[in-house]
Design brief:
Blueprint (H helix, E strand, L loop, with lengths): L2 H7 L3 E5 L10 H14 L3 E5 L1 H8 L6 E4 L15 H10 L3 E5 L11 H11 L4 E5 L3 H9 L4 E3 L17 H10 L4 E4 L5 H9 L4 E4 L1 H4 L1 H12 L5 H12 L1
Parallel strand pairs: 1-2, 1-8, 2-3, 3-4, 4-5, 5-6, 6-7, 7-8
Protein name: Putative N-acetylmannosamine-6-phosphate 2-epimerase
GO cellular component, one term: cytosol
Family: Belongs to the NanE family.
């Protein structure tokens, strides 16, 4: 394991700076400024999606980057760095850690998780990898197969974990206790109190995204929580977004 990356991330907050094409902040430049703001706020690392965003962020901040490529393949549910093609692109870009879907779902290249991990480990033996998991068994399997970091990223986002309460503190606790790997808490952490609870559960580091870097969703949470009036312009934008 890269000791420098390990020491920089251990016990720290990793801020996820991502925006999809249908979102208002979709721009590599904007994501780089988000990352810069997070760095100034004390973030230990950045999680980012796509080669263009990662490249821009690398030129803007001097922090470890967890890189992913979200790529949809027809007929498959896995989206986060699902094939060797995306892994190769991220290795070429030079990200510190590559996160990938390590759920039990089939990968688009027809590989089961075990085969996929064996392939990437064989081809890129010196690259650090993070397993995005949804259940205990997936995290334990990824750990046994040699993945460097175990994440709770996909708890609540697979069809068999949709009823999970987030953040999934029990999953964090069990994987931290049993996997023998650094566990990165991710998913549903919306407040400093929840972040503190994740660390108390045994998290080695934690990722927070929407609660920091997605102002549209944060605005909606405030409006919904306070049951206040929704502005007409917001309604119009939402209708346009739904039509895309």
């Amino acid at each position: 394991m890269d000791k420098a990356v390990y020491s920089l991330l251990a016990g720290g907050l990793i801020v996820s700076c991502q925006a999809l094409p249908e979102e208002p902040l979709f721009s590599s430049y904007i994501m780089s400024r988000m990352a810069y703001a997070a760095m100034e706020g004390g973030a230990a690392g950045i999680r980012a999606n796509s080669i263009s965003d990662i490249h821009e962020i690398k030129n803007t901040v001097d922090l470890p980057i967890i890189g992913i490529i979200k790529q949809k393949y027809k007929g498959f549910e896995t989206v986060i760095t699902p094939t060797i093609t995306e892994v190769t692109a991220l290795v070429s870009e030079g990200v510190d850690i590559i996160a990938l879907d390590c759920t039990r779902r089939l990968h688009p290249d027809g590989h089961k998780l075990e085969d996929f991990i064996m392939e990437i480990r064989s081809k890129f033996p010196d690259q650090l990898f993070m397993a995005d998991c949804s259940i205990y068994e997936e995290g334990m399997l990824a750990a046994r197969l040699g993945i460097d970091f175990i994440g709770t990223t996909l708890s609540g986002y697979t069809h068999y974990t949709r009823n999970a309460v987030l953040p999934n503190l029990e999953l964090i606790k069990r994987l931290s206790s049993d996997s023998g790997k650094p566990v990165i808490a991710e998913g549903g952490i919306k407040t400093p109190e929840q972040l503190k609870e994740a660390f108390k559960a045994g998290a080695w580091a934690a990722v927070v995204g929407s609660a920091i870097t997605r102002p549209r969703e944060i605005t909606r949470d405030f409006i919904t929580g306070a049951k206040c009036r929704t502005g007409g312009k917001t309604d119009k934008r939402e209708r346009q977004s739904d039509e895309r």
